[in-house]
Structure of Amino acid ABC transporter, periplasmic amino acid-binding protein:
Amino acid sequence: MFKKAILVIFAGILLSSCGKQKDLIIVTCGTYKPFSYTQNNQLKGIDIEIIQQIANASNSKLLLLSAGQYNLIEYVSSVDVDGAICAISPDDKSKKIVNFSQIYHGENIEILVNSTNYTGKVLLEAKNEKELIDVMKELSQSRIGAIAGTLSEKIAKDYAIKYFDDSSVITFKQTKSALKALTSGDIDLLLLVRNSTDYKQSFPKLAQINSPLFSENFAIAISKNKPELLAQVNEILKQMKANGTLEKIKKKYSKM
């Protein structure tokens, strides 16, 4: 009887231990709509909902850290966190520092120009990314417009720093303001994350460069010390794609 009691207690401890939630510590930026941003002192966005779904599916308690503009890859490698999510594009340099999950989202960055002025006409002739960069280098003081706090700003600044200088990027809080600036000639081209055909009736002077020249694929950065977590995240993402959860989350923010 005594042995049975011990076994029952021991089994109860095991069950309690198995059901106990573990912490999933993830760092994010909180600065890029619609992926990770702060509203009313709360983190929201596509990436926030995705990582919450992963935490739920893995029976984990999600602990989110907001790092703002801090380099998230460096954060994961230097601080005791499990990973990072915030519209992160895997590249060869980052892959040496962290592991990456499978791709959970791909985004095309569309480029609008003013088709009625000289700069716009020249830029419209660019057939690929290299030609576009070459044309912009030839044009004096190319001004790149982007929407503040979105992926378009991130990409615009990355390219401006790489090929021009950070001052080449002019940010706008609202898309409509950016479209007006492009129409009036205050900027030379505008980077937008989503398809901009909805604006063509209101801004007939604007034209889209034939194909999206910039594209980004996003993945979750996972610490090199967490191979089991990487496998688990990939399996959950696979399930989220299959059952439509991933698409449902993206659709929720499609009009932002």
Observations:
- The radius of gyration is 23 Å.
